[in-house]
Write a structure and sequence with these properties.
196 residues, mainly alpha, 8 helices, 0% strand
Length: 196
């Protein structure tokens, strides 16, 4: 009797192997052959699950985005306003090994968005989702009196997301430019400026 294969579970397993390899060696250094070998598959066997490296990278980006969102939801719990916003930022900042690995995938993916409309579209959807959430938390903070009425929530959200993306890029550099302590201090300074 043929073995039943859980296609979705196999895809998740391959994605997990991919994001760890890309995070360690960089997107351009990792081949489909490397991924297959690391996952324990024969060369070419990945074609049953992914059409090619670009599809696998997109799936890895979506996996990282989903993992981050799961952590954000758990960290926020019933927090609102600035507390929720700070909890969100702490889950996005590359403060530990897992989040540094995730940042490497994300930064690799961003490089592809310049030349590939499909990647640009996936990235735009993710950023729009986060921007909507950040604006919502800022509006809650404004209603609670924690953020001045004059603060433009859309502009403040854009600045905050730019800071988070910049921190991810800095930490991915060969010589990390921001320690976890410095990232937290920069975040707190940024939030303090919004709440003045």
């Amino acid at each position: 009797m043929p073995r039943l294969v859980d296609h979705a579970a196999r895809r998740r397993e391959i994605i997990h192997v991919t994001w760890r390899l890309v995070a360690r060696h960089g997107l351009d250094s990792v081949t489909m052959r490397d991924i297959a070998a690391e996952a324990g598959y024969a060369n070419g066997a990945l074609n049953r699950y992914f059409a090619g490296k670009d599809e696998l990278l997109q799936a890895s980006f979506e996996y990282v985005f989903a993992q981050t969102n799961d952590r954000v939801a758990a960290a926020i719990g019933d927090r609102r306003g600035l507390e929720a916003l700070r909890a969100f930022c702490l889950e996005v900042l590359p403060l530990d090994e897992t989040r540094v690995l995730e940042a490497r995938i994300v930064v690799s993916f961003w490089g592809r968005t310049v030349a590939d409309d499909r990647f640009a579209g996936v990235n735009a959807v993710a950023l729009r989702e986060w921007r909507t959430q950040v604006v919502g938390w800022l509006q809650e903070a404004r209603r609670a009196g924690d953020v001045p009425a004059a603060v433009d929530a859309d502009l403040a959200a854009a600045h905050l997301l730019a800071f988070l993306m910049g921190a991810q890029t800095f930490v991915v550099a060969e010589e990390p430019l921001l320690t976890p302590h410095q990232q937290r201090a920069a975040l707190d300074a940024h939030l303090a400026q919004i709440s003045r």
